[in-house]
Amino acid sequence: MGFVQQISGTMPAIAVPLTAKTAPELIAQAKAVCASPAAIAEWRVDAWPDVPLAVGQTVAAALHAANKQLLLTCRTQAQGGAFVGAVSDYGALYRRLLAISPDAVDIEAHWPVAARKALVALVHEAGAAVVASAHDFTATPTLAAGQQQLTAQAAWADVVKLATMPQTPADTLTLLALSAWAKKALPCPAIVIGMGALGQLTRVATGAFASALTFATLGAASAPGQLSVQAIVGIQEG
Ligand SMILES: O=C1C[C@@](O)(C(=O)O)C[C@@H](O)[C@@H]1O
Prior knowledge:
single chain
């Protein structure tokens, strides 16, 4: 099953972040995903950008042998991650790691169009899906602005993602409304996430308000407000 199909079910697919900075820890995190009900591992390569390729290959092989999907994400500092560098460095990291055959690659939407297009082409040539992502730690757009933003991202990606840090309950309701709109209006799956305690409703929402994917932990979290895989499964299974 391809990545897009994997996250197109009625329930949000569960993705667990891999955040380790050493080979034994990283491989242990991957194995924990293999033994869990999560369908996807999101490898946050910004945590360890000079990871040896052989380690990446071991991680990918373990996940694929267990029928889990691998989403590769290099999150920049401005978007809540650890990566500092030019778009050429960001692209070089992905170019190197495409050799491990990820199922999907996260590309931040803010990059200049030409650089972004080149990266999208590279990811598609490697047979992986593109997740267009955007994060805002201070503000949540209005519903109309969020719709515009996701529509623009959907024009160049296979999956769209918006994560914001709600400052008020109304912000969380806007994200839920955006998620419900995206399900009906967009041609591709949409991941819509509220970070922090106020956003947790978006991580557990099912049915009409469900995000295509929800990030949950087996230990280390990669963003504020993430719940455990066990908690999400409990809610999804009722
Ligand atoms: O984009 C996201 C969403 C996220 O920030 C969250 O809030 O769960 C976690 C990140 O690892 C991931 O890349």
